[in-house]
Design brief:
Number of domains: 2
CATH topology of the largest domain: Growth Hormone, Chain: A
CATH architecture of the largest domain: Up-down Bundle
Structural class: mainly alpha
Radius of gyration: 22 Å
Helix content: over 70%
Distance between the termini: 9 Å
Oligomer: single chain
Number of helices: 18
Shape: globular
Strand content: under 5%
CATH superfamily of the largest domain: MFS general substrate transporter like domains
Length: 463
Amino acid sequence: MMTATENANSLSWLGIVRLGLVQAALGAIVVLTTSTINRVMVVELALPAMIPGALVALHHALQLLRPRMGHGSDVGGRGTPWIIGGMAVLALGGVLSAMATALMGTNFAGGIALAVLAFALIGAGVSASGTSLLVLVAKRVAPNRKPAAAAIVWILMISGFVVTATVAGKFLDPFSTARLVAVTSAVSAIAFVIALLAVWGVEGNSRLSNAGDAATTASKKPSFKSALKEVWAEPQARHFTIFVFVSMFAYNAQDLILEPFAGSVFKFTVGQSTGLSGLQHSGVLMGMILVGAIATMAWGKALGSLKFWMVTGCIGSGIALLGLVVAGSVGPTWPFKANVFLLGLANGAFSIAAVASMMSMASNGRESREGVRMGLWGASQAIAFGLGSFFGAAMSDMARLLLGSPVAAYSTVFAFEAILFLVAAVFAYQISPAKDFRQSNAGSKPSDPPSRDSLVASLTGRA
């Protein structure tokens, strides 16, 4: 049950949508830099694919800064400055990435140097704005609304991808590097203004860290190293970090091989395989919407359990991947498109439940560590995404050399991913978003033993 004060501080649905628009603006810049500019480097400039690949990897690696950025938000007591500042850095990185791409045509070394700076800024900007945004949602959204809030924020982010890719694509033709810089600059500027207007005034002027007096506030300003050590010492926070890494690694390991698999086994054309990717993402979107709606409406009941949806989504993802293994043997008679859609549906179900669990668990444990926790989980996700894509592609190449068959190679990777998802389901089963290892403000002493009711709630995964 929320207190009257907590209820008064909770965001309305409009406030949640406004924060979702910030995530959409963030996604609009990222999709241009990791997708469009990636393609321009490889196709129009005829550069090795490893160059944009390394730059995108740098963007992911810089997201190891997420815990540090979250700590800054904790210490300052407000997330809005970090969101606005992070979006400014991200927008600058987006513009510089386009300028760097244009420069590579005439001054390759200078272009590469500028691109490294640009993608470093992109990674830092995403870390600062994305982490603080999720912390703000975690602090200000009522517990029963968090599943729907997670779905809204992520759906708007995907919408930012789609709208930007569609509109920017039209303005980029006929292509020129000058047009690339102009379009990217316009998107970055518009995205920053949207984020600024969307977040303005949502947080208010009050600190949300429950700090009452100056002495209490001062006691909540440890060094980042101490804060990170304290959070890592919390069993549930550490356990959830591992779950996020394993599940997101499995989620992204098929990213670069599903379309080649469709071409090898089912003889899909380039256009058909691209459409297959769209079908999968439609399933992801549907899974997010369904779980967000069901978990919100059934809050406090079995179907409202975030743990239930994390476990079910991971198991479903594993089964769908095993279906792809079977598809490699059966061939065209297998319901391949339905299999891919179900994979997306299960992926969307577990991922949105995991995000909602992040929001639910961010405040569990020692006070004023929400940013560090959210940053730790965000960094785990980002690194898992980067490593998952690379590992999936590398493992398929290695399996092809050893097995001599592309189909067998892809099936090996899918089977490995299925196993990882089942491992992730076991981790998810041991997580309770409603209860965590708590420590008092004075030191590392654990809280009082849980009551019978809280134990029942933890076993069912309800808040």
